[in-house]
Amino acid sequence: MADTYDLTVIIPTFNEEENIAAIIGAVNEIFLRSSIHGEVLIVDDSSKDRTIEIVQEIAGQNDNVRLIVRREDHGLSQSVVEGFGAARSEILQVIDADFSHPPELIPRFYEAIRHGADIAIGSRYMKGGDIEQWPLKRRVISLGATVFGRILFPEVTDPVSGFFAVRREVVFGAPLAPRGYKILMEVLGRGRWHSFVEIPFVFKDREEGTSKLRPDTMVDYLRQCAGIARFSISRRAGPVWEEWTKIVRFGLVGLSGILVNMGLLYALTEVAGLYYLISAAIAIELSIVNNFVWNDIWTFGAVDNLRFERKVQRFGSFQAVSMGGLVINMAILYLLADVAGVYYLVANLAGILIAFAWNYGINRHYTWVRA
Prior knowledge:
Radius of gyration: 25 Å
Helix content: 55-70%
Strand content: 5-15%
Number of helices: 12
Largest sheet: 7 strands, mixed
CATH architecture of the largest domain: Alpha-Beta Complex
Mean pLDDT: 87
CATH topology of the largest domain: Spore Coat Polysaccharide Biosynthesis Protein SpsA, Chain A
């Protein structure tokens, strides 16, 4: 009967002969120091160097080290998913072979899952996280991918991290469609999870070997994002669906605010006889109040409606963000219409869209950060 473990550390490899013995030794040392009964599962994509041979030698001397050699459908994400299925524990940790992910943090991930989190994510972009020794091009690509990923998962600061742990039930039987390098995106988009924690870490570029980043990596990533979005829409469930529901509601509330604004501007000017700029100021403010109330109740479903001070704080934040959006709208309109010569209605539409993205993004992350 196969032994069962507290934790499985899955290490996907391809041509990692310079690093593989050291990373296995480091992980086993962490197991020993932390009293974790763990296994090391190497999932290799038919390496052309001595990686397979080295792992076989180590596995022959260590019962907790196993090797899977994949002969077809190569790819990091595919390797990790195969590791999910072969693991002999209920907690699964994914880590790179090149020491870009610090193995000494493994016990923190393990404890986070043990204490109730479904997913524990290593973040380079939260306080305490960083990236060292990375060229500007890779920083820009990574940041761009992260920003795009946060459209789908706005509460996760590093949704494209390759350093994470997950409870087996999150991925067991989940319709994962792994491609490329961003396997965490698949887990977040298609896995069965409710809670996550993030653990800051400093990413260090590989010391030995060469990077596996290819020119088509971004294309695979964009296809993956589109697939996750389609999956969520078809299922009408999951965190991506919930987020897009909030975006649509936020947009509808914004449209209601336009109607309130226009209606009040007309009534106060034509009926009440106020100077149109005074009417406009009142109409803008009351449309902001309208938008706040509906977003608070309907879009984000704030649960502390009886706490007046929290509602006042949210309104103050919403007011400031709305004023910022107004400034952005006007600035874009001026720059495109007066400076770039774009037709003013098209320029105004661009300003509205950019201001909408500003309003939603800032309010989502600060005004209603945990709604």
